[in-house]
Amino acid sequence: MSSTTFMSPEAALEHWQGHRRLTRRVIEAFPEDQLFSFSVGGMRSFGEMCNELLAMAVPMTEGTVSEAWGSYTPGKATSKSALLAAWDADTAKLSALWPKIPAARFADTVTAFDAYTGKLHDLFLYVIDNEIHHRGQGYVYLRALGVEPPPFYERG
Questions:
Q1: Sign of CA dihedral 100, 103, 106, 109
Q2: Could you report the average pLDDT of every consecutive run of 10 residues in the chain (156 residues)?
Q3: Which candidate, 46, 56, 4, places its Cα nearest to that of 23?
Q4: Residue 83: Cβ within 10 Å count
Q5: Given this model, what pLDDT does residue 70 score?
Q6: Which of 92, 118, 137, 142 could serve as 149's disulfide partner, Cβ 3.0–4.6 Å?
Q7: Which domains are present in the chain?
């Protein structure tokens, strides 16, 4: 069986950053007073979900680059401005760190944060999937608040 690369690491990062740009617009769409307080059906607020996303993206990338994983620590933003600032800082960090990962490394099996064992490409896809999942919850929250969310297909 031959091996063919489906997507380059550079294309994967651009795909992920497209999702991050869209998630940022969802954060921006939230009324300040609802971002960390509004929930539906006992779920966490969208602000709390975004803090989780911040705790995953850069730490996963830093762990991949350094092979020093540390522990999972949720983000601590408590305001819209702080969340957006952390989001932007992490977006820049991802762009700086990602090129330091050799393409072959994505096939390595690791245990991230002393808890999650798998191939790095699967772990990164989980992080991206988790962002998409929580962003979908954010869309539901925005609609429940009477706010039109940004078009899901505009990632530019």
A1: negative
A2: 77 97 98 97 96 95 93 86 97 97 95 94 97 98 98 91
A3: 46
A4: 25
A5: 80
A6: 142
A7: 9-144 (1.20.120.450)
**How far is residue 44's CA from residue 133's CA, in Å, rounded to a whole number?**
13
Report the distance separating Cα 45 and Cα 138, nearest Å.
Answer: 8
- Is this structure's pTM higher than 0.90? yes
CA gap 111, 90 in Å, rounded = 22
Indicate left, alpha or beta for 42 from its phi (over 0: left) and psi (-120 to 50: alpha): left
Whether 63 contacts 118, CB under 8 Å: no
Q: Please give the pLDDT value at position 126.
A: 97
Q: For residue 4, what pLDDT is reported?
A: 67
> Around Cβ 128, how many Cβ atoms within 10 Å?
17
What are the residues facing 111 on neighbouring strands?
117
